[in-house]
Write a structure and sequence with these properties.
The chain is an all-beta fold. The protein has strands spanning about 5, 10, 20-25, 35-40, 45-50, 60, 70-75, 80-85, 95-100, 105, 110.
Length: about 110
């Protein structure tokens, strides 16, 4: 059974940082691309970032809205993917989801507010 469990969300002031984590199980993690997607209140899903899988050079990509502020990474030994979020803005407020192979976690809430 595929499971994705996000953690690390919370309330942070503008300009602050958070590190989201996603624990994956039930599939071959190391060869699977992983993504972070978010949903702001009253809005649709927005792709944030993804990271390639496999033994080749790791490729990452980012939405323009987070480029230069967010960093995605993975630890294949621990079946974990991370999203380091710096210089957070109020518009980053959303539920953040980990996604792989069409499966979704339950999400973790990030609120950026003073």
């Amino acid at each position: 059974e595929v499971q994705l469990v996000e953690s690390g969300g919370g309330l942070v002031q503008p300009g602050g940082s958070l590190r989201l984590s996603c624990a994956a199980s039930g599939f071959t993690f190391g060869t699977s691309a992983m993504s972070w997607v978010r949903q702001a209140p009253g809005k649709g899903l927005e792709w944030v970032s993804d990271i390639s899988g496999g033994d080749a050079v790791t490729v990452t990509s980012y939405a323009d809205s987070v480029k230069g502020r967010f960093t995605i990474s993975r630890d294949n030994a621990k079946n974990m993917v991370y999203l380091q979020m710096n210089n957070l803005k109020p518009e980053d407020t959303a539920v953040y989801y980990c996604n792989a192979l069409g499966y979704w976690g339950q999400g973790t809430q990030v609120t950026v507010s003073s």
